[in-house]
Amino acid sequence: SRRYVLCEVVSEDPRCRQCIEDRAVGLAVRDAIGRVHGDYGLACCSISFTVKYLNAYTGTVLLRCRKDSYRLLCSALPFVRQLESRNQRYPCFLNTLHVGGTIRTCQKFLIQYNRRQLLMLLQNCTNEEERRCIQKSVLSCFLTEEQSQSGDEEDDDGTE
């Protein structure tokens, strides 16, 4: 059985976005696990650990691990301090948003989370143009949710 950990990469450095790639995130997470839990923790977490989904534009990352090691993984995530790409280091941290048993529950959570973020932005709009753009985005969240509900029920890739 598996757990999926949904995180967002938070950085004040705008250049950090360009180095958000599977390999960089995977290495940063493994490094943090090794520092916090040592070789034993790293070995436990490495079985079945993978960066399942990544969106560099939004900074959203979905990590997969075994159910019995997700606590080790989650407890190490606050110790991720940077991402490294092409010998450049970009300070950042991983904000854990949700832990789920399937990819689908994480998707549903993300849709709700994005909708709440957009509604908060909507309240702080300064002009009509901004307001229209954000309302359009909120509506697209509703459309995405309906499409995902009518889709197939396959949550996992079935490999162990």
Concise summary:
This protein has 160 residues and is an alpha+beta fold. Helix 1 (22-46) packs across helix 2 and helix 3 (103-123) runs antiparallel to helix 4 (128-150).
Largest sheet: 4 strands, antiparallel
**Approximately what portion of the residues adopt beta-strand conformation?**
15-25%
CATH architecture descriptor of the largest domain:
2-Layer Sandwich
Query: How many E strands?
Result: 6
- Secondary-structure-based class equals alpha+beta
Low-pLDDT runs of 5+ residues are 149-160
The radius of gyration is 17 Å
CATH superfamily of the largest domain: Ribonuclease P, Pop5 subunit
Number of helices: 4
Just give the CATH class of the largest domain.
Answer: Alpha Beta
**CATH fold-level name of the largest domain:** Alpha-Beta Plaits
Strand order of the largest sheet: 2-3-1-6
- Following the backbone from N to C, one meets helices and strands in this order, namely EHEEHEEEHH
- The number of distinct structural domains comes to 2
Ends distance: 8 Å
Average of the residue pLDDT scores = 84
